[in-house]
Structure formats: C-alpha cells, structure tokens
C-alpha cells in the first residue's frame, strides 16, 4: 500500500462543466466515487453557457444514462450538492463568484477540463481571486505538442501552482491492466533475475485500433500517432516495464524510477521510425488532401542503462488495423546450447501482457511432445483476468487527486523527458507510407524489426 500523507481536498471544482470531457468522464467518475463513499465535498461546475443549475443537473443525468447508468442514491447526492458558476474565464467576476461558492474550503481541487490555451487564463484568474493557495490542479493531456511547448506550459502553470500541486492526468495510467503490469513485476520474484539484457532479446509494444479517426480528422491533423499515443501512453508503458523497483512507498518513489527510465531513453532518429497513413485518411472531413500526418507509427527505441543497454524496444501504434488490442511481448534469448530441437524454431520463450481488450498474462515456452523422440512444441501458459467491480481510469485518478496521491500522475520532468525522446522525429522527419486498411501497416515497418524475427501480431 502506497503511503499518502497529503490532506484531502475539501471541494471539487471543474472548469468546462458543460463540455464533452465532463459529459463523458467526469460526471460518471463522480457518481462512482459517491457510490463508494469516497466523495463527500462540495462539487462546483464552472463554464460559460446558456445553462442554469437545473440544466446542468439534467446534463449530468443524461451523461450517466449514456455512460454506465444512473445510481439513484448517488445521483441524488450529486444533484443536491452540485453548484454552478456561469461566467467567462476572462472576467474577474467569475472568479469572485467561485470564491464565494467555495465558502470555507481551503484545499480545493481544480480540474481544467478545458483547452490548454485557457490554462493560463484560468490559473491567473484563480490567483487573482486568492483561490489558489492550498489548492491542487488537474490538467489533461496533451501536455504540449513538442518539448518547447511543454516547457512553456509548465512555466505557465508554475506561475500559480507549485509542481507538487499539479496533477497531469493520463487516463492510461489509471487502467487496471497497466496497474497489473506494475504489480506483477514487483510483487513476484520470478522475473527479476531474467529481466535484463543478459536474457531479454527484445521487447515489443503494440497498440492496434480497428477504428479510424471517427470524424476527428481536424483534431488528428494537429496530432498524429506519435503525439497521440506514442509520446505518452506507450512510452509510459515502456518506462513501467524497464524501470528499477521503487525505493520506499511514497508516491514519488515510483515516479522517480520512471523518470530515470525516461531519462535513459535514447532520442529517436529518423532511421528508427516508420510512419504510415491508411488509404482513405485524406478523404476524411477536416483532413488536408495532401496530408502527411501519420495514422501509424513504428519505432525502435533503446534505453542506455546497464540493465537494458543494447536491447531493442519496438513500439507500434496504428489505426485501421485488423484488431483492436494493446499488448506487450518480452522475448527471451534462446538457450545457449541447442540440446534438443530448438535450433530451428523462430520464436524464443516470452512473457506476454495483454492490456486490452481482455487482460491476460502468459508465458510462452516449449514442452516435449508425447512419444519416443525428444521433440517438442510451443505452448502458452495463460492467466486470464476476469473483470470484477473495477474502477474506471477516471474514477481511480480523480479519487487519487482528491486524496493527494500523485503516484499515477505525470510529473514535469517525465513529460519533458518523453518529449525529448520523440522531438527529433516529429513532423516530416521520416516519410509517410500508405497502407491498406485492415492490415498491419506499411511493409516498410517490417525492416526495423527484421533482425529480431519480425512483429508479433496480437
């Protein structure tokens, strides 16, 4: 159990209360926390709209109907304790009204469910109304679009909040399977002796999506696969796979080790990256007819530490793939001496973590076939996790932020270190290759992994 000594927040304020993020994620997370008895503080929405408080309550109800269902008792509590400040973020009066609504609260949690270009405006408004002392603030990714903009965003936030009060939320870190990956690594001793360059041949991380951009062409034109999922979600997974064990039980112990892993990642070169774009992407609404934005990226990454030096880590992410799945595969080197029939086999032993859509942990090995001959076959020993009453990522992360537990949130140094890894290959540093929908990306992606036997498709 991680030790958390911070005082709990005594009010929850979410800016952008009438927006899409509040509708899809925040209201359902709040109801779930209330149902579990984890929230008993004022809830204040802030936005500029034609809505009044009754309309915001109705929107919250609609949100719950569409995203998990309405718990009558929990929703009744939320509706009774929900407040609303309707005002412009550029108007000082909005923040004076918010200060009044906060009453005696001295440790509010502010959730910026707003575009990053409004962060400075809202942070300055909170400071101007003396509403920032003792507060915490949750901000959503993207944390910038490159290293320079991430550093500028951090400077903006630090003008009103210390780093210890800033909770950068990446919902991927709140997913149960990602938590299970960390737990499995450090709660068992079986992996530690072989979790290093002496035994590991390579690591593959694949995030495949059957869907395309789903009407978000204009957004995707500004992002692309590397910014959308590689720089954040998938580098986070790699850091969790390769970091050393946390020293101590304080939330920053884990984040310190992750930061060391990020800091040891070698910046990518154009020769380490293959970018792809599915056929038909340029016909999407909001997409330029000559777009060179990638909907697929495959990268080869190295981590320059004594544990991992020389071990290639392959990351692949793409849209319009044959399946939707996220999977980690750690491939081991073959035995030093081929005693039996293993010399001709392409695949070595492996550990596989399936993170979505179902959760499995498996070990690939060889066993002897029945009969006189000493020949074998590849088998997989499988553990499948059956979902129970699990917290959603936003429920887990919002509850942690209220309690002041920062372990699953992204720290400033980690954000900037991750951008340093991908900064050299952003934009058109590498050419974009067209690929057919329902395939595993352009054929050129096979070249960066050919020395390690090719990609393993989920």
Tag the structure with descriptive keywords.
458 residues; alpha/beta; Rossmann fold; 2 domains; nine-stranded mixed sheet; 11 helices
Q: What value does the Rg take, in angstroms?
A: 24 Å
Q: What sequence of helices (H) and strands (E) makes up the elements?
A: EHEHHEHEHEHEHEHHEEEEEEEHHE
Q: How much helicity do the residues have?
A: 25-40%
Distance between the termini: 33 Å
* Share of β-strand residues: 15-25%
CATH structural class of the largest domain: Alpha Beta
**Main sheet record:** 9 strands, mixed
The CATH topology of the largest domain comes to Dihydrodipicolinate Reductase, domain 2
Quick one: overall form? globular
The structure class reads: alpha/beta
List low-pLDDT spans: 1-5
Strand order of the largest sheet: 14-13-12-11-7-10-9-8-15
Mean pLDDT: 91
What's the helix count?
11
Total domain modules: 2
Question: What is the correct CATH architecture of the largest domain?
Answer: 2-Layer Sandwich
Number of strands: 15
Q: What name goes with the CATH superfamily of the largest domain?
A: Dihydrodipicolinate Reductase, domain 2
Describe what this molecule looks like in 3D.
The chain is α/β, with parallel strands linked by helices and 458 residues long. It folds into two domains: 11-140, Rossmann fold (3-Layer(aba) Sandwich), CATH 3.40.50; 173-390 and 411-452, Dihydrodipicolinate Reductase, domain 2. The protein has helices spanning 20-35, 53-66, 72-81, 92-102, 119-128, 147-158, 176-187, 217-242, 251-264, 393-403, 412-422; strands at residues 11-15, 43-47, 82-86, 108-112, 136-140, 166-169, 200-209, 273-278, 296-301, 313-319, 325-332, 350-356, 359-368, 376-385, 432-435. A nine-stranded mixed β-sheet has the order 14-13-12-11-7-10-9-8-15, covered by helices on one side. The chain has a six-stranded parallel β-sheet with strand order 3-2-1-4-5-6, with helices on both faces. α1 (20-35) packs across α2 (53-66), α1 packs across α10 and α9 (251-264) runs parallel beside α11. 42% of the residues are buried.
């Amino acid at each position: 159990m991680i030790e958390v000594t911070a005082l709990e927040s005594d009010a929850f304020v979410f800016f952008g209360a009438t927006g899409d993020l509040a509708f899809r994620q925040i209201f359902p997370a709040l109801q779930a926390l209330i149902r579990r008895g984890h929230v008993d503080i004022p809830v204040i929405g802030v936005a500029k709209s034609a809505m009044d408080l009754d309309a915001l309550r109705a929107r919250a109800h609609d949100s719950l109907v569409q995203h998990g269902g309405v718990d009558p008792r929990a929703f009744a509590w939320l509706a009774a304790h929900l407040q609303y400040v309707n005002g412009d973020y550029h108007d000082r009066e909005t923040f004076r009204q918010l200060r009044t609504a906060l009453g005696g609260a001295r440790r509010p949690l502010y959730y910026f469910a707003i575009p990053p270009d409004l962060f400075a405006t809202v942070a300055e408004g909170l400071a101007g109304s003396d509403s920032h002392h003792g507060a915490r603030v949750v901000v959503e990714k993207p944390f910038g679009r490159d290293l320079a903009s991430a550093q500028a965003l951090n400077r903006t936030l630090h003008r009103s909040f210390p780093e210890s009060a800033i909770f950068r939320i990446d919902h991927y870190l709140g997913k149960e399977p990602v938590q299970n990956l960390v737990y499995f690594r450090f709660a068992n001793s079986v992996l530690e002796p072989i979790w290093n360059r002496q035994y590991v041949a390579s690591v593959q991380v694949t995030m495949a999506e059957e869907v395309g951009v789903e009407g978000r062409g204009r957004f995707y034109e500004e992002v692309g696969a590397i910014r959308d999922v590689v720089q954040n979600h998938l580098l986070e997974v790699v850091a969790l796979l390769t970091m050393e064990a946390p020293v101590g039980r304080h939330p920053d112990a884990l984040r310190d080790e992750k930061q060391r892993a990020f800091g040891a990642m070698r910046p990518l070169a154009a020769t380490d990256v293959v970018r792809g774009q599915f056929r038909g992407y340029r016909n999407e609404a909001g997409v330029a007819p000559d777009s060179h934005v990638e909907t697929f990226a495959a990268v080869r990454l190295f981590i320059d530490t004594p544990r991992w030096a020389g071990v290639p880590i392959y990351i692949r992410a793409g849209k319009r793939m044959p399946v939707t799945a996220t999977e980690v595969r750690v491939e081991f080197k073959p035995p030093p001496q081929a005693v039996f029939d293993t010399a001709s086999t392409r695949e070595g032993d492996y550990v596989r973590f399936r993170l979505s859509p179902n959760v499995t942990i498996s070990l690939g090995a060889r066993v002897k076939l029945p009969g006189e001959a000493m020949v074998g076959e590849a088998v997989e020993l499988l553990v499948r996790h059956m979902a129970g009453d699990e917290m959603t990522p936003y429920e887990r992360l919002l509850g942690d932020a209220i309690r002041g537990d920062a372990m699953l949130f992204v720290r400033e140094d980690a954000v900037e270190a991750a951008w340093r890894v991908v900064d050299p290959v952003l934009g058109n540093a590498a050419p974009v290759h067209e690929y057919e929908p329902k395939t595993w990306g352009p054929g050129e992606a096979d070249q960066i992994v050919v020395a390690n036997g090719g990609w393993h498709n989920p």
